[in-house]
UniProtKB/TrEMBL annotation:
Gene3D superfamilies: Rhodanese-like domain (3.40.250.10)
Pfam family, one: Rhodanese
Domain (Rhodanese): residue spans on this chain: 15-99
Protein name stated in the entry: Rhodanese-like domain-containing protein
PROSITE patterns: RHODANESE_3
Length: 100
């Protein structure tokens, strides 16, 4: 499984790269802020919402600490998606947040 550090992610965000971030945390967790542009798909909803994803794109998957996102990555890899797990999740992320 590919991984990325939060510093690497922040550098890509700062460079205005076209990123596709999936946040698999629960509703109450995302109320505390999300990575700008992230799409919220709670982990339990990933199997039924995987058809919303574009298999031609690469995705960065994030949760609170990196474990749930790793589980999501494993599932999505099995379905043929190109995904990268964010190491340390939102606990390690100290970049800009957006609130929905």
């Amino acid at each position: 499984m590919k991984t990325m550090t939060t510093d690497e992610l922040i550098n890509l965000l700062d460079a205005n790269e076209d990123l596709h971030v999936i946040d698999v945390r629960e509703d109450f967790e995302v109320e505390h802020g999300m990575i700008p542009g992230a799409v919220h798909i709670p982990l339990g909803s990933v199997p039924e919402r995987a058809d919303e994803l574009d298999s031609s794109k690469s995705y960065i998957v994030v949760c609170k600490g990196g474990v749930r996102s790793a589980n999501a990555c494993e599932y999505l890899i099995e379905k043929g998606f190109d995904v990268t797990n964010l190491e340390g999740g939102m606990m390690a992320y100290d970049g800009e947040l957006e609130f929905k």
